[in-house]
Amino acid sequence: MSQPATLPLFMETPVEDIPKIYDEFKKSFATGKTRPVDFRKQQLINLGYMLKENMERLCQALYKDLGRHPTESEAGDVGMAINEVAYVYGNIDKWAATENGTFVAKWSPMGPQVRKEPKGVVLIISPFNFPILLSCGHMVTALAAGNVVVLKPSELSPHTSALLAELVAQYFDPTVVTVINGGVPQATKLLELQWDHILYTGSNRVGKIVATAAAQYLTPVTLELGGKSPTFIDPSMDLKFAAHRIMWGKVANAGQICLSPDYVLVPRQIEQKFIDECIAVLQEFYPEGARTSESYCRIVTEQHTKRIQHLLADTKGDIVFGGEIDVEGKYVAPTLVKNVPKDDSLMSEELFAPILPIIAIDDIEEGIAFVNSRDHPLAIYVFSFDKKFQDKVFDNTRSGGAMVNEVVVHAAVDGVPFGGVGASGNGYLIGRYGFETFSHLRATLNSPPWFDKLWPRYPPYNEPNLRRIRLLGPRLPTKDALTNKSFGNRIRNWFLGLLFLG
Question: Alpha-carbon distance 338 to 368, whole Å?
Answer without folding.
Answer: 19
